[in-house]
Amino acid sequence: MIKIYGSSDDLFEVDGEFRGENEYGCYNEKVVLCVHDFTDNSGVIVTGEYAPESPCTAVWAITVAPEDEDSPMPMMTIEMAENGYSPMLVIRCTDNTSVTKLEATNE
User: Fold this and answer.
1) Which of 19, 24, 64, 70 has the highest CB neighbour number within 10 Å of its CB?
2) Count of domains forming the chain
């Protein structure tokens, strides 16, 4: 299981059992992460952004998408958890999971 959440206004953090970095600096930019479970070769793309334009102006926004258009969403359990002012995404996956940062854009 891993937990992904925003911290302050400039860090996107990942906690749990996985391969990869556990903290991504993101002042004034989106962070795009690929969460891939090698046990069943499935994964998702997680995007985090602090204070995106309307309707959120001073909170974190987290989105989840398939790895690509030809890959359906995996059967991972993905849920939101309480975490104060920042949403927390909880992904139930094996310890054979990697988290890698993809190119961030401000589009």
Assistant:
1) 24
2) 1
Work out whether strand 19-20 and strand 97-102 pair parallel, antiparallel, or are unpaired.
parallel
Residue 82 lies in a domain: yes
- Could you say which residues of the chain have pLDDT below 50? none
In the chain, count of helices (H) and strands (E)?
0, 10
CA distances from 49 to 5, 17, 30, 58, 72 (A): 10, 23, 5, 10, 24
In a domain, 107, yes or no: no
> Residue 6 CB: number of other CB atoms within 10 A?
24
Q: What is the pLDDT of residues 55-78, one digit of tens each?
A: 666 688 899 999 888 877 787 889
